[in-house]
């Protein structure tokens, strides 16, 4: 069937943090760029997961960071976020620093960055449904907005979908971790009406849930739930970490689990007694999806040994943070002051000539993904993919 056709130089699929950075950079480099996003808003997992902190921005050091590891769009986003109320400064979390943010601020920063670009056309509420490949080249991508379909004829495609949508549709090779090894997925709810929140609550919540799981009052995985306080003093966020096999159309189950956790906490912790849920993630969010089989696959050893590459394009000092199904969270840190590099070869494949990947689905091992998948790193990966795509 013949659909209306849109031609562009760079097509970016997915408007999460990596996709926004990729499309803004490609447009700034002069390429006519189209961004396709199935949601009605930018930010992807960072928004639907109700995240609170940007990780992977700073050097691994004891001191308050004064600069961001990767200059460019990551720095611009942080600068713009920090200008908006409420005031947010880098915060030490364990051995590393993060930048707190409000979801509404991140959305408006991403919108404002992308709206400034004249070479960039964004289609929200639009989904990529198929792709046609000839001679190892993507020649067209079909998108659907409500009932209408269009064909996009791109010169280069950047897959920022997190789910490897274009990797799969184009026939590029990819790896998937077996379901029992995959990292836990997430589902968050926000509560108000908390009384006298203190720092110890972040320890008490998993402690009480652990006890309840031991006594089989709640499913065992709910003991991995974390708590962080919100911007208002009566506000907090509970992040459930749930097995990924539950996530296929399992929003209903996640919602049930969230209500169970909230009920339980309201009974055992006086802080929660009068609290009420005001927001829940609209979907379960995955830490791990398909991973490109790229020209190079970054490993845990590369990360821990702070390896540098001749084609290193993005620096990172975030530890390997694995959300294991049996053991919960496991951290492996780089030496203080060290960082590693992600080579450009992790973003490209031998299989498809005009495909780049950025964000969650680049070519890394399951363990290495525990470090590369954080937002700060995804922004810089997107930016570099946008640059390379515009010039390739
Ligand atoms: C539970 C959990 C907690 C996390 N906590 C943190 C944290 O605190 N700090 C941190 O820095 N990182 C955190 N992360 C990691 C981080 O959120 C993500 O890895 C990062 O945001 C990924 O960005 P992305 O742009 O690569 O992908 P995504 O944010 O997944 O964006 C992909 C976009 O593609 C769109 N899309 C998908 N398919 C299609 C299609 N067919 N057509 C059109 N659009 C499509 C999606 O709607 C989405 O907007 C967490 C992740 C999880 C799962």
List the defining traits of the structure above.
FAD/NAD(P)-binding domain, 392 residues, single chain, 4-stranded antiparallel beta sheet, binds flavin-adenine dinucleotide, alpha+beta, 7-stranded mixed beta sheet
Describe the fold and architecture.
It contains ten helices and 20 strands. By secondary structure, the chain is of the alpha+beta class. Strand 8 (137-145) and strand 9 form a beta hairpin. The longest helix has 18 residues, at 251-268. The structure holds flavin-adenine dinucleotide (FAD). Residues 13-19, 36-39, 44-46, 49, 51, 53-56, 127-128, 160-163, 165, 185-186, 285-287, 359-360, 373-376, 378 line the site of flavin-adenine dinucleotide.
């Amino acid at each position: 069937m013949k659909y209306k056709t849109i031609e562009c130089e760079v097509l970016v699929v997915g408007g999460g943090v990596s996709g926004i950075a990729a499309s803004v950079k490609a447009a700034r480099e002069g390429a006519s760029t189209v961004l396709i996003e199935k949601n009605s808003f930018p930010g992807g997992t960072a928004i639907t997961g109700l995240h609170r902190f940007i990780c992977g921005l700073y050097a691994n050091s004891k001191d308050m960071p004064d600069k961001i590891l990767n200059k460019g769009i990551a720095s611009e986003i942080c600068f713009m976020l920090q200008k908006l109320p409420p005031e947010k400064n880098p915060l030490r979390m364990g051995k590393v620093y993060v930048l707190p943010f409000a979801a509404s601020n991140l959305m408006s920063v991403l919108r404002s960055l992308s709206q400034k670009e004249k070479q960039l056309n964004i289609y929200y509420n639009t989904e990529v449904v198929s792709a046609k490949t000839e001679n190892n080249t993507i020649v067209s991508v079909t998108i659907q907005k409500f009932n209408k379909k269009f064909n996009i004829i791109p010169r280069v495609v950047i897959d920022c979908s997190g789910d490897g949508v274009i990797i799969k549709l184009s026939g590029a090779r990819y790896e998937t971790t077996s379901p029992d090894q995959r990292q836990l997925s997430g589902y968050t709810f926000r509560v108000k009406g908390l009384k006298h929140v203190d720092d110890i609550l972040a320890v008490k919540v998993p402690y009480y849930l652990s006890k309840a799981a031991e006594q089989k009052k709640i499913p065992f995985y709910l003991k991995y739930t974390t708590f962080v306080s919100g911007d208002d003093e009566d506000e907090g966020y509970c992040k459930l970490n749930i097995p990924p096999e539950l996530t296929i159309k399992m929003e209903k189950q996640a919602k049930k689990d969230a209500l169970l956790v909230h009920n339980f906490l309201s009974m055992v912790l006086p802080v929660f007694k009068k609290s009420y849920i005001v927001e829940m993630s609209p979907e379960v969010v995955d830490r791990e999806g398909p991973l490109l089989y790229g020209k190079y696959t970054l490993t845990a050893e590369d990360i821990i040994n702070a390896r540098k590459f001749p084609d290193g394009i993005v620096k990172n000092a975030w530890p390997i943070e694995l959300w294991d199904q049996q053991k919960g969270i496991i951290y492996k840190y780089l030496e203080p002051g060290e960082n590693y590099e992600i080579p450009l070869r992790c973003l490209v494949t031998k299989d498809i000539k005009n495909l780049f990947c950025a964000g969650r689905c680049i070519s890394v091992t399951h363990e290495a993904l525990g470090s590369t998948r954080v937002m700060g790193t995804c922004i810089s990966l997107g930016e570099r993919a946008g640059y390379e795509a515009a010039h390739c």
